Every structure is written in structure tokens, then in C-alpha cells.
Amino acid sequence: MCFVTTVYMTYKCFLKQLSQYLYESGEYDISLICNNEEDALKDIPSFVHYHPVDMKRGVSLSAFGAIKKIGEILEREKFDIVQYSTPNAAFYASIAAKKKKVPVRLYCQWGIRYMGFEGWKRSVFKHLEKKDM
């Protein structure tokens, strides 16, 4: 199982205890994809496989690089489940996971990408949020 968040703090606050529970069940091998952060390196549990990927907040052309890198990790690791949550991570991981045919793609919506946008940008991202990538 792979969790994908933009920043480590999201994993720490919402997923760290769940990861511990899943790991201790003996049924799951846990991975995390998030930004390369010093906090993650100091705090991440030893049983979690950490895959740092640069994910800028907001809209940026760097999204293409993040999608590609996440796709490479998904293809190499052959995850059965990918769970993504924060707006940018969800956007990148949903595209990469669909392209790499991950069997179970779980989107837990913990933020709406378009809320801070206006005009055409809001319309486009609102539409994308409703689509199955």
C-alpha cells in the first residue's frame, strides 16, 4: 500500500497511526510518497518505505515531472493500493496511478484544489475534481 501526500505533515497527522495499525496486522507493506523533507527523514517509522518526490504547492509546470516520477515509482513497486489525499498529490497520483493501472486507487479528499482559484482556472480545476482521471 502506498500513501501519497504533498507534505509529510499530512502523513504524520492523518496516516501515521493508520500505517502502524496496517503494518502490525501483518497484511500490508507500507510506502509513502511525499516531498523530500528533513522532518520526514527524522520522523518516518522504520517500517515505511519513503519515496521523496518534489511536489510544489499550487499550479506549476513542475507537475509534469512529479507525475512522471510518481509513475516510475508506482511501476517499479507494483502497489495493489494507492491512497492519495491532498489536492496536488491527489492530482498527480491519480493520473500516474491510472496510467500505471494500479488496481485500487483510493481518493480521500482532504482539500479542494480549486477553492483558492477564480475565473477560468476555478472552472477548469472544478471540472477536473469531478472527473475520474
Strand content: 5-15%
Number of strands: 5
The main β sheet shows up as: 5 strands, parallel
| Derived structural class | alpha/beta
Q: How much is the average pLDDT?
A: 89
Number of helical segments with 4 or more residues = 5
Spell the H/E element sequence.
EHEHEHEHEH
Distance between the termini: 20 Å
Order of strands, main sheet, comes to: 3-2-1-4-5
What would you report as the Rg, rounded to the nearest angstrom?
14 Å
Envelope shape: globular
Model regions low in confidence, pLDDT < 50 over at least 5 residues: none
Helix content: 40-55%
Relevant terms:
133 residues; alpha/beta; 5 helices; 48% helix; globular
Describe the structure.
With 133 residues, this protein is an alpha/beta fold. The protein has helices at residues 8-24, 38-43, 62-77, 87-99, 119-130, and strands at 2-4, 31-34, 49-52, 81-84, 104-107. Strands 3-2-1-4-5 form a 5-stranded parallel beta sheet, sandwiched between helices. Strand 4, helix 4 (87-99) and strand 5 (104-107) form a beta-alpha-beta unit. Helix 3 packs across helix 4. The radius of gyration is 14 Å and the shape is globular.
How does the SSE layout of this entry go?
Elements lengths: L1 E3 L3 H17 L6 E4 L3 H6 L5 E4 L9 H16 L3 E4 L2 H13 L4 E4 L11 H12 L3
Summarize the structure.
By secondary structure, the chain is an alpha/beta fold. It is built from five helices and five strands, in the order βαβαβαβαβα.
